[in-house]
Amino acid sequence: MMGPPGSGKGTQGVKLAERFDNPHVSSGDILRRILASNENSELANAVRIIEEGKMVTDEIAGAIVFRELENVTGFILDGYPRNVRQAELLDIYLKAQGNRLDAALYLAVDKEELMRRLTGRLTCENCGETYHLSLEPPRRAGYCNNCGSPLIVREDDQPDRITVRLRLYLERTRPVLDYYQASGLLRKVDGIGSQEQVFARCEAALV
Ligand SMILES: [Zn+2]
Description:
CATH superfamily: P-loop containing nucleotide triphosphate hydrolases
Number of helices: 8
Radius of gyration: 18 Å
Helix content: 40-55%
Bound molecules: zinc ion
Structural class: alpha/beta
CATH class: Alpha Beta
């Protein structure tokens, strides 16, 4: 699953995983889980360098994702690969497992719509749940439905930061899209519409 921030990739990934009875393997979730754990492996310690503001290398990013893929045959992979090197590492890993990707699904949403969705995003500082001021407001204004904690606008969700995030995402992702286009795996899906409409398109692109 690929798609810019605000494309709905995470939500659709979870739904597709249910539909195809496959695990939803999200690199972001894995990283958060390792950071919250007291796992004392070489890998976990390497992941903790992100907390010091450094990027994980492509090899480490690969290793933490591949560990999750070891005992599964099918999966919906979300948040990885982020660049061509990671895409190549994934191909090498899967080939060694006697496996391969069936499709690289890209949820396409234009920049104006992404700005509209991302501006106004609220995050629960406590549990991480996200809301939207107008599109998906919490039941009680300013407070989390799950845990009742106050909601904040993360620094990353300020309009000027959103513009930068989207630009960086598109710059980094274009070569990955080209990579999957060249191997015939790319399925571009229109990400505008209701969750159900977009899901139906994703499903149709995969069967
Ligand atoms: Zn919460």
